[in-house]
Amino acid sequence: MKKLKVKKIQKETKKELLNYATKVNKSKAFLLDSFLLLMPIMYIVFYLFMGSREEFGANKIYGWLEILIPLVLIQTFLFFKLGQTPGYKAYNLYLIDEHTKQKPSFGIILFRNICVVLSFFSIFGWIMMFFRKDYKTLHDLLSNTAVIQK
């Protein structure tokens, strides 16, 4: 019985050692990534692929797919290779797998980034971080990842 209590305390201690990123730093990193990654992609789609903003307005679903697919792929590549995006790097944030405490696998990162897009449309997924002690969003919970600050 005593061994079980010791193991339980050790597990709780390991969880507490993680320095979860704050909601402020995660929000700042998101805004920075929006300008550094999203804006160039939007410009390319608006003016090179579609020809104009008016053409984008006429074909919104197709236009948003042309924006979101490259964004998800670029972010997935950056998280897989470096463990962080430019916004995360600016605030010293890293994406980790909750189980291994290491950089997540490519599949987990891709799943997380697809869930990011879905969370964005529901807004609920993003608002969750303001009510949780570990500041996790819905896509972090679904993919069992965490954003930590080193």
Automatic annotation (TrEMBL):
Highest taxon of the lineage: Bacteria
Topology within the bilayer: Multi-pass membrane protein
Keyword set, alphabetical order: Cell membrane, Membrane, Transmembrane, Transmembrane helix
Cellular localization per UniProt: Cell membrane
GO cellular component: plasma membrane
Listed Pfam families: RDD
This protein's record includes keyword Coiled coil: no
Domain (RDD): residue spans on this chain: 29-144
Segments traversing the membrane: 30-49, 61-80, 109-131
PANTHER family xrefs: MEMBRANE PROTEIN, PROLINE-RICH ANTIGEN HOMOLOG-RELATED
Protein name (Swiss-Prot/TrEMBL): RDD domain-containing protein
Species in which this protein is naturally found: Sulfurovum sp. enrichment culture clone C5
